[in-house]
Design a protein that fits this description.
single chain; binds magnesium ion; alpha/beta; six-stranded mixed beta sheet; binds adenosine-5'-diphosphate; 367 residues
């Protein structure tokens, strides 16, 4: 799958932009704060209806305007797809796929797949579990809209259950109904996350050995608050909800479930979050992102579009080489401050765009 054309209107610092991309490597070069990441962000937005920088939608609209447009033309399975997004100041957005209105965000998932790798991804390893859950949920939702549906339903019932727990006039019958619903959605979410972690281990093992010249063995482990015994997540979860009811009522919160789960990354049996070097943490996330490229291809039959935001300069030679060799198989959009260290790896199919102050100065100069 690849982006053929990006067109932006009043998006961030782009008043008007129209770029034709190549099916291979596209490099956006320029100084800081010129609009390189803004381009990747707009592409990412078309896959998730959300910015990877998790800012508010209205921040995406050019300061001097009241509405922004993103339009992507995508080549997929030899067919063209068009995604049009209009973002409005009041936080609303209108999304169209092939000129047909999308009424729920879930309907957008699976139309266009991307994997983004950016410097902020280091946070996924180092910081709170919510970032790791978010990554799992986004990756799973983009290939499986049903996963997203179950997640939305789970969170809905969860917040209703929490309201009930805080309530003095507490109804056991309603709690029972919530618990049964919750365990049904949790069962699905947990089993999909476990499957995903299995696949990450499968692909990640080879990738990580290649990046580290066989020196390191990586292992991803899902940490579930629900007992995984006999794979009977539903009953195990229901039982644990009952066991924890006194505590949950005291706190007015549901203390177990997929919303509290996490995953850990071990390198040579050592937990990278606690003991890993910065380099190992960065490589863990690199391995995970490259494994997810393969997972998406396994599921959809095509590689997603790879977005590399300013990451090459931070990596050592082995890692850089691994990336630059791998991207030959898929469309890649790279942003960087200079291309000197890339030229050895890029062929004449690459397109280079110079970005300056919300404008592309030359459209796709070849190397
Ligand atoms: N809503 C907006 N309207 C106009 N300019 C914006 C908006 N949001 C961000 N910018 C500008 O975009 C630039 C940053 O773009 P970015 O793509 O992050 O830069 P970089 O080239 O370093 O990746 C800054 O100059 C910032 O002021
Ligand atoms: Mg940037």
């Amino acid at each position: 799958m690849y982006v053929k054309n990006i067109s932006l209107l009043n998006y961030r610092n782009y008043k008007k932009l129209n770029v034709e991309l190549t099916e291979s490597v596209n490099v956006f070069v320029g100084d800081n704060a010129q609009g390189k990441t803004n381009i990747l962000e707009s592409v990412y937005y078309c896959a998730f209806a959300k910015s990877h920088r998790s800012s508010k939608d209205k921040e995406l609209i050019n300061w001097e305007n009241s509405t922004a447009y993103i339009s992507l033309l995508i080549g997929k399975n030899r067919l063209d797809k068009k995604i049009d997004i209009n973002i409005l100041r009041d936080g609303k957005k209108a999304i169209k796929v092939n000129n047909i209105k999308v009424t729920k965000i879930g309907e957008l998932f699976g139309i266009f797949n991307v994997v983004m790798f950016s410097p902020e991804d280091l946070k996924v390893i180092k910081e709170s579990p919510s970032l790791r859950r978010r990554l799992l949920d986004m990756e799973l939702s983009q290939v499986n809209p049903n996963y997203y549906f179950n997640l939305v339903q789970y969170n809905k019932v969860l917040s209703e259950r929490n309201i009930l727990l805080k309530n003095r006039s507490f109804s056991e019958e309603i709690l029972e109904v919530y618990d049964i619903q919750l365990s049904k959605y949790a069962d699905y979410i947990i089993s999909k996350r476990l499957e995903y972690i299995d696949k990450i281990n499968f692909y990640g093992d080879v990738i990580h050995k290649e990046i580290t010249s066989g020196k390191e063995v990586i292992k991803f482990k899902y940490n579930c608050t629900v007992n995984l015994e006999n794979k009977n997540f539903k009953d195990n979860y229901l039982r644990k909800l009952k066991d924890n009811i006194t505590r949950d009522r005291e706190k007015g919160l549901t203390s177990i479930g997929p919303h509290r789960d996490d995953f850990s990354v071990f390198i040579n049996n050592i937990d990278t979050k606690i003991f890993g070097s910065q380099g190992q943490q960065r490589t863990s996330i690199l391995t995970m992102k490259f494994a997810s490229l393969k997972i998406i291809r396994e599921i959809t039959g095509e590689y997603p579009v790879l977005l590399l935001d300013d990451v090459l300069s931070e990596l050592d030679l082995n890692r850089k080489r691994y990336i630059l060799r791998s991207i030959k198989d898929m469309q890649t959009i790279i942003t960087c401050a200079g291309i000197d260290d890339l030229t050895d790896y890029l062929d004449d199919k690459v397109k280079i765009f110079n970005v300056s102050n919300g404008q592309i100065l030359n459209q796709g100069r070849n190397i």
